[in-house]
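Note to self: user wants both folds in one dump. Writing first protein now.
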Amino acid sequence: MKNIMNNNVILEINQLPSKLLEENPVFKFATRPPGVNFYVGIWKRGDQNKVRLQNGAQSFLIENSISVTAVDEPTSPSEGIVQFIIYSGVASSDLISHDEARRRFTSILKTIRKAGWKKFINEGDPRLIGRDMYKFVLNESPAASMDTDYEPTFEEWMRIPSRTRWSFYANHVYLSVDFSREPTLLDPEKDGAYLVTFTVDSENEHYRSYVEPDKREDWKSALPAQLAILPPMRAKAEAELRAKGVKIDETYQDPPKPNLVR
């Protein structure tokens, strides 16, 4: 039975584009400069409102979805789809109170963690937890990931900028989740509108992003030098934070590095 019949779109990193199109007829193919292949599925909310991210035992369902964009890697077609960007509402309705949005977004993060995904901290960022990571992201490094297990208070929630990330990994797949607020609906006493974005990367695609665009085709050769920069950055940041009395999460372990055999 086609997925469109049961209102589920099933996505799996590294699946062949032909399989994506065959199993999900809602997707259309488009090529955009500079020669990147895109596969786009768009639907009305409620018509095709569930996306299942297939990743072994760590699979989970995304509800209230709106659209998906998939990308392959032209220089390495055998990798299949290397990235999905999934857009969804935080609820079935467009307008929602900001505190209810906070609770629902936190519930999404808990669903991902319960499915077995581990939190991911960039190798150059300090290993912080809870409010310490919240303060680090807001005050020091907006590109860092929030602690996926920390539930911000309502006041903290309203201070989090749009596109702040919460990052995970499982089975050599990387996932980041963020939200965007409608900028004209920021009154905390009134309803707001939120868009949630799930960005799913294959392991290769995740690490390709570490190198300069002009080195992308030979990223495996360029990656070791880029990775070598990160541990000293983390060590420096952690030393400064320890000196201020901030606790470092010594139990956190980085995910395994990719196989760089050419």
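First done. Writing the second protein, which came from a different request thread.
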Amino acid sequence: MAKSDNKGRRPSKNFKGGERKKPFNKNFSSRPKQNAPRKTSNPDEIRLNRYIANAGICSRREADTYIAAGNVTVNGKTITEMGFKVKRSDDVRFDGKRLSLEKKEYVLLNKPKNFITTTSDEKGRRTVMELISSASNNRLLPVGRLDRNTTGLLLFTNDGDLTKKLTHPKHNVRKIYHVHLDNNLSLADLHKIEAGLELEDGPITVDSVSYIQGAPKREVGVEIHSGRNRIVRRIFEHLGYNVTKLDRVIFAGLTKKDLPRGHWRHLTEQEVINLKNIK
């Protein structure tokens, strides 16, 4: 059995006179600790990467990459310094294009019937602006339009450049409609639409037209990039059909997935990037 003794052992704190003493702290001072003065921030200044992100160009992390690469100028000078701050009145440019500090917002609405696509109406009719009134404090405008009885996807934004891109015919923005007709669409008329029609305001061609799989032949899918007024309805009216229901199910790659009729949502960062990458 190993021998046990108390030689060399420290006394217990319960041992009389054996309480441990706290070690002396040479940095201890009896003077009260003074707080270091706080750096005051200028409310008129903002970090450059945040400025770029608020302008809707990219995320802050991505903005740092662009800054380091020399893509950003402030008042005509290229800035590569991380953490650089700018004033709201500064001329900040990304690849030569001046940025606006107003945060860009993008809201997608699944429009119901009986709402007109306008910011106001002198006749007192309900507008799509009522449906997105709680989406933003900024003034958002609809990208293009859907007529009163047309349902489906409608995008709103304060990004004027993107609006111009999505509404200009040269960019061939993809739009797909689910069309309901009063009668079955004949195969001959379907081929006429495929070949192109001559309307009162000029020729029109669609990107594709087809029957809806598993549905009656009075339901048709139409893909088109033209933004002419009531163009889908007029195509079928030209051939003697009445459109009883028209629903835009895809717009510029955006879909109605998980977006009930009458509801809206903000676009994801990736969706915004996809829209801006449209050529």
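Dump finished. Worth passing along: The first helix runs from residue 48 to 54.
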